[in-house]
Every structure is written in structure tokens, then in C-alpha cells.
Here is the input.
Amino acid sequence: MKELNINTKIKVCQYDELTQEQKLLVDQAKEATFRSYAPYSNFFVGAAALLENGEVVTGSNQENAAYPSGLCAERVTLFYANSKYPDQPVTALAIAARTNGDFINECAAPCGACRQVILETEYRGKQPLQLILFGKGQIYIIDSIKELLPLYFDKDSLG
Ligand code: THU
Here is the structure.
């Protein structure tokens, strides 16, 4: 039996090492946390999607008293971007989160369901979608969702 080892490539950096475009996207994801509706978890997440035409679409997590009816910031943002601009590839997505009155130190990684939606968005756009995960302590840059979802199921898996 052979063993398969799969590596994940993540660049770790600080805010001042980002490009101007990446900084603006992170700033907008941070701003979006203030429009989050998270009275149950008090975990306020914001996301900002950069489209190929230069537009930026932001979104935040939207919770519900019937918990599973709520939605993460990433999916709110990507579904909105894809419904408003169905033909525009999303080239980057920044994610930030705040709790206990401050931005989190360790960055938050997208949940499994959001990873699947990010994968579909990348597939639709026919190009890699860069993830920028903001943490006060460090920022993670991941060049494709396939790094976080190496054994993925997409349209091609359907044959
Ligand atoms: N949440 C997001 O919006 N994105 C993530 O990547 C992780 C979790 C939301 C869902 C819920 O509203 C709250 O954070 C706590 O899980």
C-alpha cells in the first residue's frame, strides 16, 4: 500500500506586505463585519470579492433564530456577486472576523460548505480565486481553494 501526502501551500504575511489591491480588499472585508447580523454567535464575519471588471462586492454573515437558516459571509458575498454579475469571474476573496470587540488574531478559514461554493465560483470563473484570510497576527494568502479542498468534487466529477 502506498501513502499519498498532499501539501497545502499558504503564504503567511503581514498587512504591510500586501499589494494595494489586496489591502483595499481586506479593508472592505473588515468594514463588512460591521454590517454582519450575528446576535447569536457574536462572531461578525465580513467578506469582499474582487471581480475581473474591478468591482468589489461585500457581504457579511446573516444569522437567524432558526440557526441553520443563517448563512456565512463567504456564501452571502459570492452568491450576491454571482447573481449581480453572472459573467464576471471572482479573482479574489478577502475574509475578516471580529468577536469580543476586536478583529481575531488568528485568521478564520472558510467552513466546508463555503469551500464548496468557493470551488464552484472558481470553476465558473475559469481561473484561480485567491483567498486572503485576515488575522491581526498574520494574514494567509491561498492561491486557489483547491489548496484547502484538495480532494474536491466539482462539475467534472459528474462525468
Ligand atoms: N461564519 C462565517 O460567516 N464564515 C466563516 O468562515 C466561519 C463562520 C459565521 C457563521 C455564523 O454566523 C458565525 O460565523 C459563527 O459560526
About this structure: The longest strand covers residues 90-99. Residues 38, 41, 43, 45, 61, 63, 70, 72-74, 108, 110-111, 114 surround tetrahydrodeoxyuridine (CB under 6 Å). Strands lie at 11-13, 44-51, 56-60, 90-99, 102-103, 130-133, 139-142.
